[in-house]
Amino acid sequence: MLRYLDAGESHGKALVAIIEGFPSNVAINVERINRQLYRRQRGYGRGNRMKIEKDKIDVISGIRGGKTTGSPICVMIQNIDYDNWKEVMDISKEYPEKVKIPRPGHADLNGALKYNIDDIRNVYERASARETAIRVAVGAISMELLREFNVKINSRTISIGDVRDESSVQLENDEHYAAIESSLVRCFDKIAEKKMIELINKASSLGETLGGCVEIKAFNIPCGLGSYVSYDRRMDFRIMGAIASIQGVKAVEIGDGIFASTQFGSHVNDEIIINNGMYKRNSNYAGGIEGGITNGMPINIRAFMKPIPTTKVEINTVDLMGNIKKSRYERSDVCAVPALGVICENVVAFEVAKAFLEKFSGDSIEDIKNSYDYYVGRIIRR
Ligand SMILES: Cc1cc2nc3c(=O)[nH]c(=O)nc-3n(C[C@H](O)[C@H](O)[C@H](O)COP(=O)(O)O)c2cc1C
Ligand SMILES: C=C(O[C@@H]1CC(C(=O)O)=C[C@@H](OP(=O)(O)O)[C@H]1O)C(=O)O
Question: pTM to 2 decimals?
Answer without folding.
Answer: 0.98
